[in-house]
Structure formats: structure tokens, C-alpha cells
Amino acid sequence: GKYLAVHKALMYAPRPLTKPRIEAAARKAGADWSRLLADMRKHRQDITDLLERNEEQALMLGFNGTPGFIIGNYQSFGGIDYPTLVKTVRDARAKAKGQPTTVRKSRKSQ
Fold first, then answer.
1. How far from the centroid of its chain's Cα atoms is residue 61's Cα?
2. Cα–Cα distance measured from residue 53 to residue 61, given in angstroms and rounded to the nearest whole number
3. d(Cα 29, Cα 56) in Å, to the nearest integer?
4. What are phi and psi of 77, to 5 degrees?
5. Beta-carbon count within 10 A of 85 CB
6. pLDDT digits (tens, 9 = 90+) for 17-65
7. Scanning 11, 83, 85, 87, which has its CA 20 to 30 A from the CA of 74?
8. What is the pTM of this model?
9. Which residues contact 91 (CB under 8 A, 6 or more apart)?
10. Are the beta carbons of 29 and 5 closer than 8 angstroms?
């Protein structure tokens, strides 16, 4: 499908995202606009249910915006840099395997 291409096009589209700008971004990404609208109508209830479920879960977890991450027992209420992400994933995997977590020096500091 064209999901990723449309997603990227929308991320870079001028703000505010008006209907004409959304359509232009989708078409530029190669999506069939008529089919996209038909699919949205056909799956309206499924889409609504998913969005409502996601919102409920986000509120239960204390998220009030994006980005937000849960990695093992670590919860982030905002963006994290790549080195922190790598370390957090490594530590969560080690903990899940019952291994002690370690702090490794980054390549910069070695």
C-alpha cells in the first residue's frame, strides 16, 4: 500500500492541514484519492473504534501527546535521543532475560 508514503507526505505538508492539502499530499505520495475516501467510509467504524481505544489506553498510561514510549518498565513522556533509546532497549532486554543491566560507554567516550 501507500501508507508510509502518505504518512511521510503528511508529515512534511504545509500547516494547517486543510482538506485540500491532505488530498494534495496523498496524491503526491501516489495514493488513489477516490479509493482512499471509499476505504475511509467503508471502515469508518473500525477506524473510530481503534482511535477511541488508543486514546483510552494513552490516558490510562498518562500520555497526553506524542511522542511517548514504553520500553520494558521505562516510560517516556516525550522524545528521547537515539543513544538513550538504544541503552533503554538493551537494558529492558537484559532485564527480561534476568540479566543485570550494564551501562556501556558510548563510542564517543571510549
1. 16
2. 12
3. 31
4. -105, 50
5. 15
6. 999 999 999 999 999 999 999 999 999 999 999 999 999 999 999 999 8
7. 11
8. 0.67
9. 72, 74, 101
10. yes
- Reported residue count of the chain is 110
The amino acid occupying position 27 is R
Report the distance separating Cα 109 and Cα 87, nearest Å: 15
Q: Which amino acid is at 58?
A: A
- Cell numbers at 90, concatenated: 538493551
Taking only the tens place, the pLDDT of each residue in 65-110 is 889 999 999 999 999 999 999 999 999 999 999 887 765 444 443 3
What's the one-letter identity of residue 35?
A: R
**Which grid cell is 27?**
496524491
Q: Which three cell numbers stand for residue 63?
A: 500520555
Taking the C-alpha atoms of residue 77 and residue 82, their distance in angstroms, rounded to an integer, is 15
> What tens digit of pLDDT does each residue of 5-20 get?
999 999 999 999 999 9
Block residue for cell numbers 501527546: 65
Residues 55, 62, 100: CA angle, nearest 5 degrees: 120
Cell 527480561 maps to which residue? 96
Integer Cα distance of 33 and 21 in angstroms? 12
